[in-house]
Amino acid sequence: MAKWVYSFGNGKAEGRADMRNLLGGKGANLAEMSNLGLPVPPGFTITTEVCTTFYENDRKYPSELDDQVAAALKRIEEITGRKFGDPKTPLLVSVRSGARASMPGMMDTVLNLGLNDRTVEGLAAETGDPRFAYDSYRRFIQMYGDVVLGIDHHHFEDILEQHKTECGVTLDTELTAANLKALVAAYKKKVRDDLGRDFPTEVNEQLWGAVGAVFGSWMNQRAITYRRLHGIPEDWGTAVNVQAMVFGNMGDDCATGVAFTRDPSTGENVFYGEYLVNAQGEDVVAGIRTPQHLTIKGKQANKSKLPAMEETMPETFKQLLAIRDKLEAHYRDMQDIEFTVQRGKLYMLQTRNGKRTAAAALKIAVEMVRDGLIDESEAVRRIEPQALDQLLHPTLDPKAPRDRLARGLPASPGAASGTVVFSADEAEVLAAKGEAVILVRVETSPEDIHGMHAARGILTTRGGMTSHAAVVARGMGRPCVSGAGEIRIDYQAKTMSVRNRVLKAGEQLTLDGSTGEVFAGEVPTVQPELSGDFALLMTWADKFRQIGVWANAETPLDARTAKRFGAEGIGLSRTEHMFFDPQRITAVREMIMAEDVPGREKALAKLLPMQRQDFIELFSIMEGLPVTIRLLDPPLHEFLPHAEAEMQQIATETGKDLAAVRARAARLREVNPMLGHRGCRLAVTYPEIYEMQARAIFEAAIAVHKETGRQVVPEVMIPLITGRAELKLMQKLVEDVAKAVREETGADVEYRLGTMIELPRACLRAGEIAEIAEFFSFGTNDLTQTTYGLSRDDAGNFLDEYEKKKIIPRDPFVSIDEVGVGELMKIATERGRSTRPELKLGICGEHGGDPASVRFCAMIGLDYVSCSPYRVPIARLAAAQAALQVPEYAAAVTKGRAKRPSDDRHKRVLIAAGRRSAASRISGGVAHGRPQLAARSGMAVSPVTVAPKKVSTAKKARRAPPKTGPKKGPKGGGGKSRGRRKK
Ligand code: PEP
Ligand code: MG
To answer: How remote is the CA of residue 689 from the centroid of ligand 1, in Å?
Structure first.
């Protein structure tokens, strides 16, 4: 018989922590804590498989479930000595969701289940506290009414408020037992009026209603959005946890709290948390009352006047501290725990790996390595590459003037400025238009998740460090200031005010999530320093990764940033960006508008020295690391003069009349420029453009060699190649320039010629393209565009709908479409390498900095990824994690590659970067790298060879012999030295 229910409690459990796929995170950890002998109220978990089966079978439960739940419930009754539905000693339970991956606040919870008009009296008599009993009852009806019966909770809030007014009180706690009893009656009437039936009083009906609601909530909009944002598959399902209630709201010897075993903002090894006396769990998270600190240190650091738990409940606090140590040692990770104290007795309700800022993740991982709790590879695995983004972002310039409005809690670090908006929807709309926005709310709820995601920063006026806003913002890496209580928000008037200052929607606001400060206007920011733990973690990542990380950079600033972040080369320098400089654009336009070769050459001559200087700077900054320069790529259309004044300027500069200029511009205009006159097609028609660029590259290399004594071997990259013939023409063009420069200067001009692979045809013809190209760089922006036939500039308008409707799992311009675009990449990789085994392969599309795509590139055996400078550390970490996913990685290596040129390359790069010790760890190729991987993966790997493709004799004749003998052909050279064209 299938097992659908797992019990826990009383020092043992049927589940374990490693069963989270089946029991969900919460269920697995409740089981684990029970096994550890921690005080966990008994309960049971209905597995995620029930959820999946439920949805697969038209929302029907498996037939054995009823009996298994009844048996598990009986077990709780035995342990607690209470009975579900019993009028004397009623058992009350909580019903909570618990998915495999934590989805904070996304799913629904029902507490105090099992109360009805009879059991509430039993509870009142037993506890001697009718007020407590009726308070629990009204909370239950409110939660159940909302979550299970679908009556929005604000209706109950309204009734509560009205009731308080009628009773002449302001606080909930001032309501007497009699008042609460009347409130219960009013709530029940609301249910009857709305639904035409009574609130369910039969406890089993209540239980199944709640279980159904939890499973139902897996498909609610909040959960769907959360899953989409976090890439959680729908078929994982959620588990349901049913657990005996313990009460933190039975009086002043009761409390409830949440804590992190270390500081989740900074990672500091201090016990960090908040609690509320005489309250129920949800009160802490909801931010309704101001929570108190657990420790005296925490209280002092936050200048709180309220006593710490360490002071009010010293004995219980000591127990909690011991549990903290036990949990950390057991899980070897920072834990996020929930607890309740019922009449002086401590109960653990939850533990899970705590969400943390990137800074905290880093500090915790590094310290845990130092303390011997985990090893370096585990530290590398633990940090979410994308989260590093938080550390790479600017902070407020300390010297910049600022106008401080208010101070709240430093809920999530980082600084951000933007336009004030007061609703999540507005945040989303403005952000979609490219505007930086700050979302300002009294407090946030799961309904605001889309706006929080769209915003640069989040400000709330209520709630503590564990409020919804704080937890979610930290997870998302958005700066957040929470609980800025001096600020008043008027949603109606769309204003926020502090003392006598008023800020309207649309005005600028700056947040410093690290200090909790809020400033009017925009405050300038400074770049972060990447040293200490960060640098250490990066060195660990570099030890493991097998794929190089380069950067896309064209300005000196980009190149310097890239190097600072550890880039091992420039994988793409988009030369067109250099042409948009205001001082150059006129010369560029003159060149385009020229009707003949002399006209073009005249304009190009103006550009040559500027372009040469660009390259001199790049080569100098990169100090011998590879620099890949892509020759002009964009459609000429993009450079055309549009405004009348621009046309007039060209006319004046070239001595032509305005009408002629207009006519030429009209002729050059294209209907579909991205598929038009761009890339190498420009040089097919106007070879002078690439000739000028090649000359600038070679002259710059010679100049830097002269200046520094360091030989520069530029990598010249041709864009938008469709096949061999085009590249052949480009090869001749570039080589002719090299030859001319050699002759003119007598200098040694070395370079490598390669190509972007960014069209499906190029992928298919990669075998013959590799006869000429010494390297391929996958331009996955264009490759995605042309594979999907989807405009990269316009697709944003509707791709979101594709994701929502699950036509695509995620935006293919963000993360490689592995089965489509990725398949073409694999084909190109295999075909290219079968022609030229030492072919160097990289990627320079935006995907080069996306962790999932980096993993894919590592799997298919690319030598490097190239991404924007700020994503270099992310890519380094993602690459290390890819290498640590040993079995898959080893399998990919085994399948895809004959040898690993990356080792030689990597070694060269490291030596060039002055990192000889790192280089010495690479002992090259098959001999060391792959078997080592295989050994770690437990795979038996014999020396691997890619079966050479069967090539017909005729084809063989066409293809150059890849390794030996000089290549026959107009330019000679051959094998490995083909790139090094010498005079
Ligand atoms: C690409 O197409 O992926 C690429 C890097 O080139 P660009 O984005 O400049 O077209
Ligand atoms: Mg491109």
So the answer is: 19
